From TrEMBL, chains A, B:
InterPro entries: Phytyl_CoA_dOase-like. Signal peptide: none annotated. It comes from the Bacteria. This is Phytanoyl-CoA dioxygenase family protein.
Length: 255, 255
């Protein structure tokens, strides 16, 4: 369980970083299945225009080890504690940044898409991002504006990021808004070893640059949504916006 | 004059960082002319595909304040000391990264172009880069592989970076080479306030990501070349590869 100070920090910043939250053994078991996953030819495996694999969605459908990890007590209990109730998984994906690759993301709030494209009623969802590779200054770390979630939903313009071809649009925040938010709150880009975790609110503004390092940057995203906040009008495929609404319960690792 | 330790560091790393080397007043005088410069419609003002001004070349031709600065004793004496003889200016440009813009650069050695496109005989040239804006983690700092210059000219592939339309190609270094160099030497991306300087050898590998901050990132590049190493077979316009070969002498600021 998170400490009251950690919960308070999450509520204040919309961001909570937990270095080495998962063990290297747990991460190693997940990474061992990644080469098989990214080589698959399935709609859940999203490619960039340049042919790089940039994301693997709905991992639990085709990976036993990722399916088990989805029920990890640390994931479920942390999400329950921060969201204040029972949860299901809205998205479960790896975002892959290739070495010296092109994938980047403009400033956006995830709740923009969850609401507009999936029909999520309220911003009662969060991401637990898990570093499957070490995240450094040079491999495209995610940059956040801490506290930006407290500004609520910010008007934005839907557009397709250059790097992504077959996934989705993003509701891009404009310069004026970002300038105001950064003046007030600054920017942070948490780095850390494999197994580190950055938890962020669905309204926390974030962006990232391409990976200029010669190594991969895989980050696993587990998006938890309150059972009572299940999506109503999904327009994206069910591997992008899950609609089975199965309440997740912690299961002690049997692997 | 640089200390023997600073000269040694430059020779070892192909990189020397001098925080706040120029005063805020000197930088302020230069920056005051930048809005006029980037608004000009001249071949020296390079635009990106998106219409952003991404570079202003041969600044001394159309800016009195930049022309004077080109003769700054600190620039000339530093370049002379590190190159071991009299110099002229091969390039003199601002690279502008717009707020939340698209301009980035793949890994390359500048000497690749100086040799292949301009006919520079030997790598006896260096860049003095001067931060006209504060350079932070988030506005596209230049990342260097210290010590990479000691590997000499590395075979590479000429290509046009996505962000640049009317300037030039870059000799892009491939992943295998970068992985070896980074394993041996690491990567650094020097940040610093306005007026800071990063001096780097023509063979030092470097790259940079786009600016995700809401503010501009202007860096001034003064490329010094030994008089005895003047270019022989220029193929690029004279505002990209100067061919007047005027020996520079320090002039105490009269402005």
């Amino acid at each position: 369980m998170l400490t009251p100070q950690q919960v308070e920090q999450y509520e204040r910043d919309g961001l909570l970083v937990l270095p080495s939250f998962f063990s290297l053994e747990e991460i190693g078991a997940l990474m061992a299945d990644v080469p098989r996953i990214v080589a698959m030819d399935r709609p859940e495996i999203a490619k960039s225009a340049a042919g790089e694999t940039c994301a693997a969605l709905a991992l639990h459908r085709y990976s036993a080890v990722f399916d088990r990890f989805m029920h990890h007590p640390l994931l479920i209990e942390t999400a329950r504690q921060l969201l204040g109730g029972d949860i299901y998984c809205h998205q479960y994906k790896i975002v892959c940044k290739d070495p010296m690759g092109s994938l980047d993301f403009p400033w956006h709030q995830d709740f923009g898409n969850w609401h507009d494209l999936d029909g999520m009623p309220e911003p009662k969802a969060l991401n637990i991002s898990i570093y499957l590779d070490e995240v450094t200054e040079f491999n495209g770390p995610v940059a956040f504006i801490p506290g930006s979630h407290r500004h609520g939903r910010i008007p934005s313009l839907a557009e397709t990021p250059a790097g992504l071809v077959n996934t989705t649009t993003l509701a891009r925040l404009n310069r004026g808004v970002i300038e105001e938010l950064v003046n007030e709150h600054g920017i942070v880009a948490p780095k850390g070893p494999r197994g580190s975790v950055a938890i962020f609110h669905g309204l926390t503004a974030h962006a990232s640059t391409p990976n200029i390092s010669p190594w991969t940057r895989h980050i696993l995203y587990f998006t938890a949504n309150r059972m009572t906040n299940a999506i109503r009008k999904p327009t994206r495929p069910d591997y992008v916006a899950h609609r089975d609404f199965v309440q997740l319960e912690p299961e002690t690792e049997a692997a």
